[in-house]
Structure of glycerol kinase:
Amino acid sequence: MAASSSRVMLGPLVAAIDQGTSSTRFLVFNAKTAELLSHHQVEINQSFPKEGWVEEDPKEILQSVYECMERTCEKLTQLNVDISNIKAIGVTNQRETTLVWDKETGEPLYNAIVWLDLRTQSTVERLINKTPGRNKNHLKVRRTGLPISTYFSAVKLRWLMDNVDEVAEAVLTHRAMFGTVDSWLIWCLTGGKSGGVHCTDVTNASRTMLFNIHTLDWDPELCKYFDIPMEILPKVRSSSEIYGLMKICSSLKSGCLSGIPISGCLGDQSAALVGQMCFQEGQTACLLKVVLIYLFNCYLLQPVMSEHGLLTTVAYKLGRDKPACYALEGSVAIAGAVVRWLKDNLGIIQTSTELEKLAASVGTSYGCYFVPAFSGLYAPYWEPSARGIICGLTQFTNKSHLAFAALEAVCFQTREILDAMNQDSGIPLTQLQVDGGMTSNRLLMQLQADILCIPVVKPSMPETTALGAAMAAGAAEGVSVWSLRPEDLSEVTSEKFEPQINPEESEFRYARWKKAVQRAMNWETTEPISNGNGETSIFSSVPLGFYILGSMLMLIGAKYIAGHMNKSGV
């Protein structure tokens, strides 16, 4: 793109909004070559009001999108790229994160409750206790494909309705709108309170526990089960169709995006499947995000239920009249967030790039194993009572060994999910395609190949999540500037990492990891006891309760004995 003449010949462009847990980006691609032309990124703040609570500001999320669009348009102008060539915009987003806003004022009624938030644990346990056989998979096979878990949106929405007066009042007065991040953004960007479109796509809807993956619509029985009025839910659409037109202030550089259709919408993991062109049954993609790991195994046309702790989810539906495709998914709550924890909480690194250098300086964990179950364990365990643990420490262990153990933890968690997928499918995977921010860590990629004992393939263009959203938007009926026919898709160049250790060593390290995971289990007590003011009683911890009660009895006993001895003149 050095010469201006080449810029004139770019042809149609497609943009993507990539709104993740830790940052927002706006990216612009050439629809003919899939080349990334320009992008901008803004970090997102998280707040932690109480232990286990994770929130984000919906207004900050929206403002970050506007800022990314504005800065990217400025960069394109500097490159002499005609912004009017942008023909469509796709949206990809962090899934499950739950928002409620007032459709009359356009104001959020509470912060967004992030997908890894744990405040609903007691609600989840009560729901499970009500099911036949206390079965967390009670809703899985016939309706949702999901276990009953704090992970999904329905219990977060139920908490908002029960605990936030503004939300409860808005629901009663028919002013409330519920949505995941995609719904909030599309509604705001298409006009908000002045005619904004309230919708979501099948991939995001399938993560709520309110959506029937067989009928591909909201399920009245599920809404009744969680006591959620269906009128507050967004309309479910396909992943590739025109939802509405952008409305942006004309005085801004990005104002020229007004009138452009938003025509693609996928949860970020589904977008990665499309971006990695997983359009055939059995293709698997691994997304190593800055926060978490996702591993997908694609199945066409009908959902397949896992017997080994995986989720069944909608992979994509690329058009109103196109069939839905399904996937088995394994998701791990904490992956790259370990890096942030080492940086922000322990201060042993200043930047994420330092972690690779620190770990490479020793090349081993020296028997140290790190299970980062900060929010419990997700697939394949679904054990919310687990908590993070570091074990195998010796006097020799230092921060470099801990850094190496943190990277290994990402690989071991991926291995657990891959083992579950191989057991479900009966066909062992021969190589793993990876994507996401963590793939820039070359040591991690090599460790992943070593632990899995199969090659790991990393695309040379790492933005396949945003690319997938752009592809869906460009392929939508009424836009049709991006062909998804196999013969028209651009070949993606990649780099392959081959295993470099023998399988016996890999199995030994993996077995030690599994031992560490067992140590992390059942750490938290359940069903906290309230003192009537919404505060948790100290007696909710069983060991602490026994300790305090025992201490009180000892004091009473000692006082009684002392008084008895005084009376006896002893």
The chain is about 35% helix and 20% strand. The longest strand covers residues 23-30. The mean pLDDT is 83.
